[in-house]
Every structure is written in C-alpha cells, then in structure tokens.
Design goal:
313 residues; alpha+beta; 9-stranded antiparallel sheet; 6-stranded antiparallel sheet; 33% strand
Length: 313
C-alpha cells in the first residue's frame, strides 16, 4: 500500500482541454504497471468472458467466467445489460483466466424489471455517473461470506433522480435510457444542454500519448478522477468516462476553472483519507478511501495499481 501511495504522490497533471463548462486534465502515472490483463470490453468481443445470473438469481450477484488466457478487468461503474435486470459492477474485479462462475458483486440500475432471464448479458458501453457511484462506494460493506453489499434503495433513488433530471419516462426505470444525448428543445434545462454539447465535442478527442488518467472538472469544481496503470486501459474506457459526465451535472456550472495545481490536490486527497483494504473478489487487493471531501476505491496487484476512481463528495 505504501508503494501505491508513494507513486500517487508523484503522479503529474498536464494542461487541461476545456470545452464549455467542462475541463479535462490529463494525468500521468509514473508507477510500475501491474500484470498483463484484458478489459471486459475486449474479452466480451472475443467471446472469452461470459456473465450470467446465479442459479437462484439475486440482485447483488452475477456469475462471471473467463475462458481467456489473461485476467479480465471489470471496473466499478461498468453497466452489464441483460439478464433479469441491468446491473453495475460495484467494486473493481480482476477475474483470473480459467475461473468459472466467479460471484461478482453488482447493484441494480433498472428497478422496474425482474424477468426475461434468457436475455444474454452484454456491456452497455456506458458508465454509471459519479453521484450514483459515490453512493455505492460509501455504502459498500463486506459480509461474512466476503460478498460486497450496497444500499440498493439509495442506488435506485439515484437512478430515478437522473431520469427525472433529463425528463425521461422509462418503463423499467433503466439508467441505460438516460445515456442518449438530450433532444435539442427550448424546454431542456440549459445546464444539461451545455454539458451535452461539451461532451459531444470531448468525445471526438482521444487521450494524449502516455496519458493514464483524467480529472474531470465542471465549472469551478473537480468532480471525479479515473486513473489506470497504463495508457491502453484509459483508452479502452475513454468514451464511457466522457459520456458519463452528461449524467452528473451540478447545479452550478459557471465560475473560474480549477488550476492545474488545484486539480492535482483533488487527486491527492486520497492520501489524507481513511483507508480500508480487503482481499479482492478475484486477483489483488481492493482499497476504499473515504473522507468528507472524496470517496475513492481502487485495485492493486502485488502493490501495483491497476485502477483508481476518485469521486467528489
């Protein structure tokens, strides 16, 4: 753990890209990379990762099988669409090759459906927004069976807030329904329209060479950070990270943009937070960081960072 935090202290940040009220600060991780692994998106595409309901289907657990030759990374906030209802992964998990039926902890992001189990799971290609991920992070606890549990009611309330904010009336109250851009109309909240326009432009960009993470600021606030051990992983999640910005619009989006030094201080708030560690669901060790200002969690293998998310309180 000390090694991870030491390297976090040496992470550096570049000049931001600003579009409208949104600013993206590139982060460069100078620590060692973890073991080789594959992302869930790549493994799904290759047919080496499968997700299914447990024999006695339950909301907080899905079974994951990895038939590939590399571990597969599932990050917190990824949405798995299908099964009895859409879910999101609640902690980062590195599934070992050859593992069958690993019980991965999830939360429901579709309150109005429980059925159609013949629907195969797939990645929705979207990410749960910060406010819901923060709720999940702050409520995660480990039971005696080592399964992670969260406040499901609070997650459903967060999904409902997002749908209401975007004036969406989805039959199954699915967060996936909120992932499409808003229509251009006079009735649309100008804050949401401004963020949607910015996200549309930012999605056309790609990470910079050697960039391994990104800090997101909206208006005068740094709201989130995503950090990985290698540029390839950030690139794989880039579109989802950028798209999720549109689902988490603060009430105020104006004001002076944060400086680079202020963005760096936001990332390093992890160093002053209370930390809890537990053996990972798959490979590695999970870390959760909590303070009055941030909620963060990450995964490390052999004291080498794989991923870290930091969410403003």
């Amino acid at each position: 753990m000390t090694t991870i935090l030491n390297h976090l202290e040496t992470a550096s940040i570049g000049r931001p890209k600003r579009v409208g009220p949104v600013a993206l600060y590139p982060v460069y991780w100078h620590g060692p990379t973890a073991l080789p692994y594959d992302t869930a998106a790549s493994a799904f595409a290759a047919g080496t990762l499968t997700v299914e309901e447990a024999p006695a289907a339950s909301v907080p657990t899905l079974l994951v099988t990895n038939t590939g030759e590399l571990p597969v990374l599932l990050t917190d906030g990824e949405i798995l669409e299908g099964g009895w209802q859409n879910r999101t992964v609640v902690v980062p998990v590195l599934v070992q090759p050859g593992e069958v039926g690993v019980a991965v902890p999830v939360a429901c992001v579709e309150a109005g459906r429980w059925g159609a189990a013949n629907r195969e799971f797939r990645r929705a290609g979207q990410r749960v927004p910060r406010r819901i991920r923060r709720t999940i992070n702050r409520s995660v606890y480990v039971q005696g069976d080592a399964l992670r549990r969260v406040d499901q009611g609070a997650v459903w309330a967060g999904v409902e807030d997002v749908l209401c904010e975007r004036s969406l009336d989805d039959e199954t109250f699915s967060l996936v329904a909120a992932c499409e851009p808003l229509p251009v109309a006079d009735a649309v909240d100008p804050r949401l329209a401004a963020i949607d326009r910015a996200v549309g432009v930012l999605r056309t960009l790609r990470p910079l060479p050697m960039q391994t993470g990104v800090i997101v600021a909206i208006g005068e606030r740094c709201v989130s950070a995503e950090l990985f051990d290698r540029p390839e992983t950030l690139a794989a999640f880039w579109d989802e990270i950028i798209s999720s910005i549109a689902l988490d619009v603060p009430k105020r989006i104006d004001g002076p943009r944060p400086s680079v030094s202020r963005a760096l201080r936001f990332l390093r708030r992890v160093l002053r937070a209370e930390v809890e560690s537990t053996p990972g669901v798959g490979l590695g060790t999970e870390y959760r960081f909590r303070s009055g200002r941030i909620a963060a969690q990450g995964l490390a293998v052999d004291d080498r960072l794989v991923c870290l998310s930091v969410l403003a309180a």
